[in-house]
Amino acid sequence: MPRPRLHRKLVCDPKVTFYKPQGIPLKTLEIVELTHEEWEALRLKHSESLDQIQSAKKMNTSQSTIQRILSSAQKKVGQAIVKGYAIKIIK
């Protein structure tokens, strides 16, 4: 039986939940799903300019977990930008 998932503290809700390349109809695009946790980790690290330890404390999780979440989020965002995919933020 897997370990139960800890509740992570997510302070903000994204004001926008969809990003897509300009001028391309959404129905023709691939969609990359970014979790609310991934969005929050990116926000804390890059928008609030916190380091991983501070971000982990704000989200009530460990530094290694924040590293894993950030790595996943950055991979998804990078893939979307390079390949022209849409990004959907899910809860």
Key phrases:
91 residues; elongated; 3 helices; 45% helix; alpha+beta; 3-stranded mixed beta sheet; Arc Repressor Mutant, subunit A; 3 strands
Number of strands: 3
SS content category: alpha+beta
Number of domains: 1
Residue share in helices? 40-55%
CATH architecture classification name: Orthogonal Bundle
Mean pLDDT: 90
Low-confidence runs: none
The CATH superfamily is known as Winged helix-like DNA-binding domain superfamily/Winged helix DNA-binding domain
The profile of the biggest β sheet is:
3 strands, mixed
CA radius of gyration is: 14 Å
Major beta sheet, strand line-up: 1-3-2
Q: What is the CATH class designation?
A: Mainly Alpha
Number of helical regions: 3
CATH topology: Arc Repressor Mutant, subunit A
What coarse outline follows from CA principal-axis ratios?
elongated
**First-to-last CA distance:** 25 Å
- How much β-strand is present in the residues? 5-15%
**H/E element sequence:** EEHHHE
Description:
This protein has 91 residues and is an alpha+beta fold. The chain has one domain (18-90): Winged helix-like DNA-binding domain superfamily/Winged helix DNA-binding domain (Arc Repressor Mutant, subunit A). 45% of the residues lie in helices and 13% in strands. It is built from three helices and three strands. It has helices spanning 36-47, 52-59, 63-83; strands at residues 18-19, 31-35, 86-90. A three-stranded mixed beta sheet has the order 1-3-2. 15% of the residues are buried. The mean pLDDT is 90.
